[in-house]
Design a protein that fits this description.
25 strands, seven-stranded mixed beta sheet, mainly beta, single chain, 37% strand, disordered N terminus
């Protein structure tokens, strides 16, 4: 086939001019494409890119079996979906902890049973799943909070002394509760129960809480839990994002107003892509400019962005003060990631999601892991 810039004999002067300019036109389109990938604001992470011919890195597997410690039965623990991943680096290996749903009949979203599976990768390209879940409901003191719905939507951070701290949602099909577990090896976990159970005699224990994202910082090439003014800090919640502090990463105190009510630090905005709800994403990053938070944003089509569709989940970025984590400094006007590929717009959540939960620094790049349509796991990267 002849290339478009090859000489062509043509008697029409207008056509000859167009053919002569084709290389320039192609270059202009290439530049436009590159410019479209620039980040909106300088303090933001990114821009993030999907790999060429992007595909999910993890999908459901109806053949996976696990002996449930509560029922004693062999169950197909990831037969419904695998999504909403956390990520951490250990011994130069990527560990991805993902929510795996066991299909229970024709239940709707929230009606199946969730456990947390684990996959590893040494190159960021090929991921190998563990045969059984790494974290799950059992006959322990948290069964009342985790059964029969399971454990959902993990986020994970590491401390400077090598302790792994997992935040996750306990779902007993009555009240979703944000909870904490810790481990030294990512395989054996100690459950500490709901994050706010000791605050003010458990005033928030029976109120919906979820999505705990603990602030991190980059130290010696790895992300670790950060202390600000002597405390750890965590963004959490939906449809607003709230803030909590802790001295030990286990017992958390929500930041409240003088009157003793929760004070949102990030809220939905009519007229924008996050008009329906906002929800904490992966562990935020403490930078020279401030705390960069990647968050999940739901669109309400009637008061938000009409072309995005209704209840579509995209990703936004917000900047908070490095010394006052409740103080919002800046916020993006447009999503930096949104459902575009078929597997991001089809599945259990048909409106489409790019639901962010895992962020790591690996081989000189940022790896951002997200769930697609409540069904699969994918990743984007940024240099």
């Amino acid at each position: 086939m002849m290339p478009i810039w090859a000489p062509i004999t043509c008697k029409n002067k207008k056509m000859r001019f167009i053919l002569k300019c084709l290389p320039v036109i192609a270059l202009l389109f290439a530049n436009i494409s590159l410019q479209a990938q620039h980040k909106e604001k300088e303090w933001m992470l990114g821009p993030f890119h999907r790999p060429q011919n992007a595909k999910p890195i993890l999908q459901k597997d109806a053949a996976s079996r696990f002996t449930d410690p509560i029922t004693g039965e062999d169950v197909h623990w990831e037969s419904m979906a695998t999504f909403n991943p956390a990520a951490i680096i250990k011994n130069d290996t990527l560990f991805v902890l993902y929510r795996a749903e066991e299909k229970l009949g024709e239940q709707e979203i929230g009606g199946h049973r969730s456990r947390i599976g684990m996959a590893t990768s040494v190159d960021g390209l090929v991921y190998n799943k563990k045969a059984v879940p790494a974290f799950y409901p059992a006959e322990d003191d948290q069964k009342k909070n985790e059964w029969p719905g399971g454990v959902e939507d993990p986020r994970i951070v590491e401390t400077e002394d090598g302790l792994y701290v997992l935040t996750y949602t306990q779902w007993n099909r009555k009240v979703p509760r944000l909870a904490v577990a810790t481990s030294t090896d990512l395989m054996n976990w100690e459950k500490h129960g709901p994050a706010f159970q000791k605050h003010r005699e458990g005033v928030y224990l029976d109120r919906e809480t979820k999505s705990g994202a603990i602030i991190t910082q980059l130290k010696n090439g790895k992300l670790v839990a950060a202390k600000i003014n002597g405390k750890y800090w965590m963004y959490y919640g939906v449809p607003h994002i709230w803030l909590a502090s802790s001295e030990n990463l286990v017992d958390w105190e929500p930041i409240e107003t003088y009157e003793g009510t929760l004070a949102p630090v990030l809220s939905p905005r009519p007229g924008y892509f996050d008009s329906w709800l906002v929800e904490a994403g992966p562990p935020p990053l403490l930078t020279d400019e401030g705390i960069v938070m990647l968050y999940n944003a739901g669109n309400s089509q009637n008061i938000g962005v009409s072309h995005l569709g209704n209840r579509v989940y995209t990703g936004g970025q917000a900047l908070f003060d490095a010394q006052e984590p409740w103080k919002l400094l800046d916020r993006g006007d447009a999503p930096f990631i949104k459902p575009e590929l078929p597997f991001e717009k089809s599945g259990q959540y048909k409106d489409g999601t790019t639901f962010l939960e895992g962020l790591v620094r690996f081989n000189g790049q940022w790896y951002l892991y997200y769930g697609t349509a409540d069904s699969m796991v994918s990743v984007v990267t940024a240099k």
